[in-house]
Amino acid sequence: MALAALGRVWGRRGELFAVSLSGGPERFQDLREVFLFGGPGAPGAERPVEIESVWEHRGGLVFKFRGIDSIEDAERFEHAEVRIPREARRQLPDGEFFQADLVGCEVVEKAGGERLGVVTACQEFGGPMLLEVERQGEPLLVPFARAICVEIDVGRRRIVVDLPEGLKELP
Fold first, then answer.
1. Can you tell me the distance from the alpha carbon of 128 to that of 149, in angstroms, rounded to the nearest whole number?
2. Taking CA atoms, which of 35, 60, 71, 85 is between 20 and 30 Å from 22?
3. DSSP tag of 156
4. Residue 41: band (very low, low, confident or very high) from pLDDT cuts 50, 70, 90
């Protein structure tokens, strides 16, 4: 599961700027070992690393990993993902879900039980998150709101929705 997306090298001691996909620096305080996936130095490979420190900076995070101590070391991991195994994820409160768990869920309409499609992505544009549902080759954007997504069972990979009138007809 990806927790952050690394960007460019930051500073001269091997730090990397990142965009968090799972909260602020406090999210990483209890994590010691993570996996760096991808980047120009190891495309398609995972490498275990230890988080030495992480702090907030200009709306993002700056990571320092043990053993990555120079600009040259860090450049190999630019644009890599910071990942953890699924079993290492933190527990979420009831009613909250990881986006990765929503992708792949079947979406069914409450009224009539019509199968609308499968969630292929989650989109965020400043309002409520939108589930991108692949429906007969066309995307259908469904607001991820309690009033619309009335039953969510990630274990069964199923989301029951009560769509507002006209939503299915939007381009």
1. 12
2. 71
3. T
4. low
